[in-house]
Amino acid sequence: MRLGIFSDIHANLEAFSAVLEAYRTEAIDIYYCLGDTVGYGGSPNECADLVRETAKKTILGNHDAAVSGRMDYSYYYEAARHALDAHASMLSEKNMAWLKSLPYEEKLDDINVLLCHGSPVRLEEFEYIFAPEQARECLAIWDKIGHITLIGHSHLCKVFALSSGGTVEELPAVDFDLANDKKYIVSVGSVGQPRDFDNRASFTVYDTARKRFEFKRIEYDIELAADKVLRARLERNFAHRLFIGV
Fold first, then answer.
1. What is the pTM of this model?
2. What domains are there in the chain, each with its CATH number?
3. How far apart are CA 64 and CA 66, in angstroms?
4. What is the pLDDT of residues 108-139, one digit of tens each?
5. Region at 162 (left for phi over 0; alpha for psi -120 to 50; beta for the rest)
6. What is the distance, to the nearest Å, from the Cα of residue 84 to the centroid of all Cα atoms in its chain?
């Protein structure tokens, strides 16, 4: 079975549309979204509609939680709060109800995969996993995490290999085959707002039969996506950063 896993669309319809088109050549059986459908971008409803239509299961992201009233975001910086408030006012009743229903995690027991938005250690706190030290915390929940645990949130592509003996190694974020004696924490990058200085939309594929994980990138119409941010009267930097991938 081939899984299409994507995350952090952030209301960027142009990026998400390009990703879905690229997936057409990947023979995907099931799609999963790891959260943050909304926030930052100019097309929250359109993206929510497409995710609901495409993904078998979607995980709650921190921006989804904020927009749907499931977390306190008063400590976010002003421009981010403004975007979240704007998206809350724009979303349809169906899309708002959908955000309110999303789970913090999903365990696919039959294929030994765990899906969550941030670190699986303290799900409701949406903590980042940027480095081996943060991935090392997952050793304490060894029996809970999957053979591969897939996360978003950081907008970066990252791979960490964990061993039951307590070692954690960061691997290059390139296509790889899973070893039977290790567990993996993989950050899948961002569809709508990459932050690794590569402005192409990020998406991934996991082949459960071959136990092979693949990273993908695709170009999209950044100018149109940026223009929608500006026309929605959101922070101008949300538009500008799309061009440089940060």
1. 0.97
2. 2-244 (3.60.21.10)
3. 5
4. 999 999 999 999 999 999 999 999 999 999 99
5. beta
6. 17
